[in-house]
Amino acid sequence: MKIETKYHGVMEVAEQDIVTFANGIPGFNEEKQFTVIPFSEDGMFQILQSANTPELGFVITNPFAFFPDYDFKLEDQTVEALELNAPDDVEVFTVLTVQEPFTRTTANLQAPVVINRRENLGKQVILTGSSYLTKHKLFQEVEAK
What we know:
The chain is mainly β. Helices cover 7% and strands 36% of the residues. It is built from 2 helices and 10 strands.
């Protein structure tokens, strides 16, 4: 199927690459179909692109690449809703707030995007009772000498 994207124009996307978010994502409850498409050549950054709304695309990344100690537990109802049966089915992303310069970009660790790749089901999970914030610096500041 062809979809219009925020950053890449019109793209061909396979039906099996469409991820369903049953309840949408916070702030965009009506948006239920997304796909993850590459954004950077090195694969470090992707776009969570709405299949229906071209201007709705979020820059995302694997949080463990930047925050190796990042850890959270999914509630049982989330595990059930996403039909998660094996750790290998799970893919976790964090939504980025891109800043200028890019080194000031922040990551929302309080609300990871969790996707069951086997079933193509997704959910943005709001972590309650955690110390994670919506704006963690992606890059550590370089000390001025």
